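User: My notes are a mess, but here's the protein and zinc ion's SMILES. Can you give me a structure?
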Amino acid sequence: MRHLLSSAAAFVAVALVTVAAQENIDTAMVGRIKAEGLQRSRASALYQTLTDGIGARLTGSPAHTQAARWARDRFAEWGLANVHLEPWEFGRGWSLEKISVEMTSPRYMPLIAYADAWTPSVTGVVSGRAVYVGDRTASQIEGMASQLRGAIVLTHLPQAEFVDSDRPQPGLNDGPVATGNPANPTARSTTPIGDLLPVLRRAGAAVALRPSAYRDGTVGVLGNRTTPSDAVPSIVVAGEQYNMLARLAASGASGVELRVELRTRYQEEDRNTYNVIADIPGRDPALRDEIVLVGAHLDSWHTATGATDNGDGAVAVMEAMRILSALGAQPRRTIRVALWSGEEQGLLGARAHLAQHFADRAAQDKLAVYLNDDPGSGKTLGFYMEGNTAAKAIFDAWLAPLKDLGTTRNIIEGIGATDHVPFNEMGLPGFNVIKDFDAYDERTRHTNADYPERMSEDELKQSAIVLASFAWHAAMRNEKIPRVR
Ligand SMILES: [Zn+2]
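Assistant: No problem, the inputs look usable. Here's the predicted complex:
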């Protein structure tokens, strides 16, 4: 048995060397990248500025623009070329100026509550008995018009199902992996919300409250940028707290009284938002027009600090560019960084960039590869290979000299829902890093609990080193990364 096992191990070792031998690994450069990234890292300081200093970065908000200018200025400081903000039309922005949701009867209690993005303000301070309509039909609600005028309305049923797990973790075994966003439970109401909101608006309701589906005070909040400015203002309350309010309101007797204050502001002056672009120019006359693109979305939702979604990814690509620039890297192809906006509204910044720069076949031929850093947190384990077996063999070779930093393996499966997807839709090779999903789905992504404590300094350093090394090898090999079609 022992003999058989050691023979199998020897066979595997030979096979790995053979795969690696087909690909030229620049071990000297990998060593220099590790030294710069481990010993002179700026990743932690960048992360602190982005999360603590600037905070949430909703696309179109002043904070997102501040973050984009800050990143642009760092790229300029590090000596990158072609540093600029690339505008694309997004529409009106939105920011939150004040929110306070309190229970005042049967006792005082502050509530954990956040406004949907792009929701309008509540006029003045509204207080009074909450009206619960979560279990009412549309015709019943129509009949409650006199109670609804100026009212604080509990629109949904108590939250019965909660988000209580993360998606399966890739990278731990060799079996097929289910990837992509998990199907999370959502708030439910007897009258569908699309039918309910127009009724509330006609009745002149002051504000609509609904439950978050996350546990333990975690509040998941998104928002629709096409929300009309005369919509009923909309607030999400921590699930357990909403359930308490709904039970008290439904129990008759004294009910529950609330006080709500909400002030929001639309940004109408500049309808553009901005991707941040910068280059390390290629030096090979035959290849320098080809682009190795590394990117991450800089935008976030608005309730916390956008740390795991996606401050960590943005910092990884920024620090990767800093490392390469600090080493005086002279790649054959141009290495370009893109920090996208509008990812959270539908991968819009990446789509705008593709429309602006890669619309025709000749331009598409100039893209060597796109490397994206988004979902998950912690260190980078490898890449999702989107079914591209030829690319996987190359990436496997590039990953090998990074195993001492905790990379594990590339997996052949793809992952959806982030900025490499529109590249793949055009037949271009775009790949996303594999990270851990430890509390990412259950706790931090798109919630009021997305704070930088989920990333360690070592993990930030490691992520940047992996991207820098991959970008370097992609910029130096003779051929572009193979297309699937
Ligand atoms: Zn997201």
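Residues 320 and 467 are 6 Å apart (CA to CA).
User: Great, I'll file this with my notes.
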